[in-house]
Write a structure and sequence with these properties.
alpha/beta; 8-stranded parallel barrel; about 40% helix; about 15% strand; globular; binds 3-methyl-2-oxobutanoic acid
Length: about 260
Amino acid sequence: MSRVRIPHLQKAYREGRRLTMLTAYDATVAPLLEAAGVDMLLVGDSLGNVALGHQSTLPVELSDMIRSTEAVARSTTRPLIVTDLPFGSFEQGTAQAFGSAATLLKAGAQAVKMEGGAERAHLIRFLVENGIPVMGHLGYTPQAENALGGPRLQGKGELGDKLLADAHAVAEAGAFGLVLEMVPASLARRVTEELDIPTIGIGAGPDCSGQVLVWADMAGMGAWSPSFARRFGEVGQALTEAARAYVEETQAGTFPGPDHYRES
Ligand code: KIV
């Protein structure tokens, strides 16, 4: 089966099929998510928190995103790969944004994601006009955590009008989709109704055109996960149990057993 491309997503969106997206950062997990039938894999800059042990996405470098994109692209064949433009890799202008985005496409992404609203519309337009599909990202935008004061609901009350205007600006600039993170469900519904591109929600209620989750939250890898991220499994616990069995059997001398080695 060939890779999902933007026209496939647009067709699914027009047919009213809800779109699915999960983050992926490496060649171990990405094919497992592909096997579940996910439409899009997001090489998110959340890899800073999930895979690199940072407290935020701000330290993530373009080189981190390139390495992860290559791994996800090499290990999958079907989902559309969207890679985040990390903090500091695009804000200075069209030349910087194009250079970073082109590098990510060369690494194997089919599209990039850019945080921000009307103030970024000129960057989105330039990338799209030059053949690079862009997904927008509004609401809680982790790269602006210092300005926003940490993860909290965005677009409440009158601020909803600003978010709505930003959503229109991003769509008019040519974005093929828009992530809405931590916004009131009623606002996400309104944005979804008014735009003619798919909205992908995370902590934005059920009425978006699709949903995205960080894979480790979805799978229940850590003891804590955000309230909007349902744990669809307890994979972290299963992994620790497997590792504990390995440690115990190795210490007891029951591993490796006769099935696990050969004389010739
Ligand atoms: O980096 C990421 O994982 C994201 C999602 C939260 C949408 O941007």
